[in-house]
Amino acid sequence: MSELNHWQRILVPEISRTPWLIAMDVVVAGGGVARELRTLGATEFLILGGSMGTGAPPDEQHICLDLPPADSMMAGIRQAERAMDALPQKALARVDHFDPGFSARAWRPFFSAGEPVAGRPTFGARPQAWQALEDKTQVEALWQKAGIPHAPSRVLAPERQAILDAWSDLDRGQGVVLSGDMKAGFNGGAAYVRWLRSAGDLDRELPLFTRDCERVRLMPFLEGIPCSMHGFVVGEEVAAFVPCEMLVLRRPSGQFVYCSTATSWEPAAEDTLAMTEVVQRVGRHLSRTLGYRGAFTVDGVLGAHGFWPTELNPRVGAAMFPLFGGLDIPITALHFAAVEGLDLDFRLGELQTLVRENAPRTARAGLLLPQTRTETETRWLRKVGTGFAWCEEADAHWKLSLGPGPMGSYLSLGPLEGALEPAAPVGPQLVPLIAWVDGELGLGIGELEAAKV
């Protein structure tokens, strides 16, 4: 334990004291959690997953529930969450055999509502008032109270005429963006976000919102780089890390396609300062008004208008994993410990400095696909002029993995040395790569485009 850094050491007494029931949407992800918890002193694990996932199965004992493929990312997440809330009898028996004394705690995804798993309490379960902050129809009130400049918006019922009436007041020439509430539960990955440029777009997309939402938010379409800044708050201390690019691509229909995140993009210094001020204001406001503790993200768009926030995520954000990945900082465990109210020396100022000075500059891209796969295939490719070619690992710029996923399969694209233009947005670099892979492998992804920068 002497080689652990400060943030690992302060977690060891808490993490090492119980066995862990790791309940994730995919088993492979649970293996990653187990590896991190093992470095913090934990020794006993049972992993539960809705599907196996792309990659090698974990060495730890695990249960795959073999849930059927879902028709969307959010449907897959919700299906797995429901399954963990009410495990089948066979899985319950395995859990009780693993933990007959009911001493284990559950570890669930950072987006989970945090219900117990097989009667074992979930570590870091957020209060309902904190979870409710994620509702995209509620966030304008937060921007106003925290003094955050933001784009105008309207919140209204998902009714055609009401949306059309508000549209004319909000449209700045490029259409509007419609976002749904959380009536159906947690939603992310642009699952309930649509770019509308015509009444025909509205007619095509409105059934989704009338089915799953009570309220929607309408705001102007903002051209620019989808991005996020992650923060962490405990009391009056707020750490604001670095801007991260959200790899959100677009279909010609106006549907957004979430492809994960990148930490290699670097905006102008004045934009970073503006985003830092937003995160610090939001963190202090959340702490003073709700007693919020832990990680959070402010997502938005950076364009000619500057940075305008569009949503708040009261949890760990996806970019935190590559952002902290090379630093041996157990950010999810730190977040859960803060949510639990543990009296730890978080040293947020030092953590902020460490990330800003040493954050890994990388990216990772992934797409859920409908074709069913049972095994993981790994291939390598490199840039050749303006195109790409398959190659051996030693010559590669990108690593491709294609394997099982909650929708049927999952495509993962990871850059290696020389793959990315330094400091440049990754989205425009990703589009031709995905198009080439789609053409080579016949994945049915279709046409995508990046934000205009």
Describe the structure using short key phrases:
14 helices; alpha+beta; 453 residues; single chain
Write the layout of secondary structure elements.
Elements: H1 6-9, H2 12-15, E1 20-26, H3 27-39, E2 45-51, E3 62-64, H4 73-85, H5 89-98, E4 105-107, H6 128-131, H7 139-146, E5 154-156, H8 160-170, E6 176-180, E7 193-196, H9 199-212, E8 216-220, E9 225-234, E10 237-250, E11 256-262, H10 269-290, E12 294-303, E13 306-313, H11 320-325, H12 331-339, H13 348-358, E14 363-369, E15 377-384, E16 387-390, E17 398-403, E18 409-415, H14 427-441
Parallel strand pairs: 1-2, 1-4, 2-3
Antiparallel strand pairs: 5-8, 6-7, 6-8, 9-10, 9-12, 10-11, 11-14, 12-13, 14-18, 15-16, 15-17, 17-18
Report on the structure:
This protein is 32% helix and 26% strand. The chain has 14 helices and 18 strands. The strands form three sheets. A ten-stranded antiparallel beta sheet has the order 13-12-9-10-11-14-18-17-15-16. It is globular.
**Approximate shape:** globular
Portion of residues in helices?
25-40%
Question: Compute the gyration radius: what is it?
Answer: 22 Å
Extended strand count: 18
Strand order of the largest sheet: 13-12-9-10-11-14-18-17-15-16
Low-confidence stretches: none
Q: Number of helical runs?
A: 14
Termini gap:
46 Å
* Arithmetic mean of pLDDT: 94
Share in β-strands: 25-35%
Q: Largest sheet, described in full?
A: 10 strands, antiparallel
* Protein structure class: alpha+beta
